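Note to self: user wants both folds in one dump. Writing first protein now.
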Amino acid sequence: MCSPLSRRGFLAAGSGLAAAAAIPAVSGCSSLASADSDPGTLVVHTQLGTTAPGSATYTAVVKEFHRENPGLRVKNLVNGDDLAQVYETSRLARKEPDVVMVNLYDKTLAWTDVGATVDVRDHLDDWGLRERVLPAALAEWTDGKGRLRAFPYFAANWPVAYNTALLERAGVDSVPTTGDQLIGAARKLRAKGIAPVTVGGNDWTGQKLLAQIIQTFLTPQEARGVYSTGDFSGRGAREGIDYFVALRDAGVFADKAQGLTSDTMTTQYNTEAAAVQSAMSSALAKVPPKTAGHTEVGGWPLAPGAAHDKPTILRSFTLIGFWISPNGVKKLPAVETFVRFMYRPEVVSRFITESGRDMALVTDTVSKEFPLVAKAQQLGGRVGQALLPDLYVPPAATQPLITATSTAFTRGTSAASVRSALESAYRTA
């Protein structure tokens, strides 16, 4: 198994001797991406081509791109969750693809800073694309030094989905908006043999929901401090952990949530084995029509004294962007042609209408074939917004935090132990 590449590894690879030493160490990894030096071939490394929503649309628009640009070929390299690892390996070997389509999370947070990808701010302006991007997306993709890491593309709303038919079957006549109501609903659902809140307590979905619940008593500014430093000792963070533990031990989450994954979560909700899930828009797009027909989207219920005045959701504009590599700089005219094509309003609309994707770009298109995605887009002021911690968690702490998340979802684990696990994720990273 290939070991993760560190920030130090990227920096060391900047010198010829270090690079020469580094390449044999990673050459055993399979799927080493290989750039094509042909100026008429643009090598794009993407997750669209797997089961990711939008893959079929991407394949179709690339075919259209080829028809319009007969002298320019897009060669796609497809990876799933291991894309960042594969890209880093290819970059150390100086064989990286020209464009990378991936989210801003974990390893990728460091790419621009260490020269693995380039600042695209000037290109955004030179190519006349700034007005196409939502200001919030530009803010999230811009680092602390004012560099735009990539061209924003996919976004995500992350509300809570409630199966109103299951709630009614259990005798719950309205979507819960407070913790007490959620606990009461969970008891009634369990009495009918229905799992209350399903969650991937053993992966990133559980990590995000845990972070959202902990923020019940934190302002966004306070949450940034907590997740940047890993210090959960403040009053608001401790109260949030206490609230999470109270919900967990009251049976709000599905049985053995600490071992569930995002796939288990979506399966339980889509088959109506569970009544509630915290679901980003790509998951909402997969809810079957029957279940979607009696699903209401809203926010996570609050506790008395919360820092928010409305149930919360998460939003992100960093789901997929177009990153330019150092090799891509050598093919800048081809990269410009490709990105400008992908930014066209009609292309953007296809991802919304055909795949139910939320976009980080300006558009009036609504997901009519994906009603829950559309409902999430229209929540507006009916919900508050918690901070998505991805941009603030140090990359080395990301995976340890998921391990800590599984500990947190294990019933009976004390609030003090949950806090210790979360803080240890930063110390051991």
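First done. Writing the second protein, which came from a different request thread.
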Amino acid sequence: MRRFAPLFVDVVLVIIFCAIGRRSHDEAVLAGLLKTVWPFGIGLLVGWAIAAVLARGTRFDATALWPTGVVIWAGTLVGGMTLRAVSDQGVAVSFVIVAATVLALFLLGWRGAIRALR
């Protein structure tokens, strides 16, 4: 179970990011949450897969800020925005900037905090 804890944390944070976004735009949080989460959820899984492949031959540390966290963040952002565009959801420049910032704070922040505490 401990092995999957970092993935679980990332999934929860992506869901929170989407819920905050829906709430800030006065949209029904629970009713439309899946529509908002799925592109970023798939992007997150793609980011995790790329990070795992890049770590081949070395010990994969899912809590590492660099390169693991950055790759997961980039995969979540790029994958999420790409899938939103393909599915006719909004990808305004302002949204991309906000999403990049908040996802970095969430996905990189907890990894940085762990490093600081160690």
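Dump finished. Worth passing along: The chain has one domain: 2-117.
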